[in-house]
Specification:
By secondary structure, this protein is mainly alpha-helical. It has two domains: about 100 residues, no CATH class; about 110 residues. Helices cover about 50% and strands about 0% of the residues.
Length: about 240
């Protein structure tokens, strides 16, 4: 029997797997026996069928060898593609590397921990004094971080994320990758604005959140940024 070769012409998926270091035997099997040729095919898989797919390779004659790491990496690829779909973020095949999947694996662990965390209470006491802004801001962000957005896998806190990713943050966490635009963002941005109006009505932030520029568009992100820059002494004009 001739040795296995990579699909020719190559497919989107075969290129990704080859770049990730999968041997021709595995890539050829996934292409021919399983009929998986695109990243969308992987995304549409039932996750519970990934391990049986690999186990079937060893039952062939001759058997196809694979490692536990290769199975784990394929599962992480699946997880990444599903998360990108849920956050409506385009996937570029050429950017899928070992390093990206390592970050994704870390992100899955972090997301699982976040989902298991106790629900953070809504900061119903509101923002009453300008000297209490930092305390209120942290409570508000923590609440949003525990609240689901309309993007499902993305916490609502993505709406008020800083412009730059803080040092030490995971750059592929959905908080940083979710687009700040589109219908889902409009819905989430409106919800954040509604929260801010409710929480700022009895304090120094009332005149800011009620500005027509924010009220007419329910722009929670812009209102939050102006509140933050105003009560932390920044030059808020640059944030509009």
């Amino acid at each position: 029997m001739p040795p296995a070769a990579f699909p020719n012409p190559p497919t989107e998926l075969s290129n990704v797997l080859r770049n990730l270091g999968y041997p021709a035997t595995i890539v050829s099997y996934i292409h021919t026996a399983e009929g998986l040729t695109t990243l969308q095919h992987v995304r549409l898989l039932d996750k519970d069928l990934i391990e049986p797919m690999f186990k079937a390779m060893r039952e062939r004659v001759p058997p196809i060898a694979y490692t536990t790491l290769q199975v784990s990496m394929f599962k992480t690829l699946y997880s990444y593609l599903r998360r990108m779909q849920e956050s409506r973020t385009p996937v570029i095949a050429a950017t899928i590397t070992d390093e990206l999947l390592e970050q994704e694996a870390d992100n899955v662990d972090y997301s699982s921990k976040r989902e298991s965390d106790k629900k953070i209470p809504f900061p119903s006491e509101g923002f009453k004094k300008d000297t209490e802004w930092l305390s209120f801001r942290n409570k508000f962000r923590n609440y949003l971080n525990s609240a689901a957005s309309s993007r499902k896998a993305v916490p609502l806190s993505y709406v008020v994320r800083p412009e730059a990713i803080p040092e030490g943050a995971n750059p592929i966490d959905p908080i940083w990758t979710a687009p700040l635009g589109g219908d889902a963002f409009t819905t989430d941005n409106r919800l954040v604005y509604t929260y801010l109006v409710s929480l700022c009505q009895d304090g120094p932030g009332k005149t800011i959140v009620n500005r027509p520029a924010f009220a007419n568009t329910s722009n929670g992100r812009a209102a939050f940024k102006l509140l933050d820059s105003t009560f932390t002494g920044g030059n808020y004009q640059t944030l509009l």
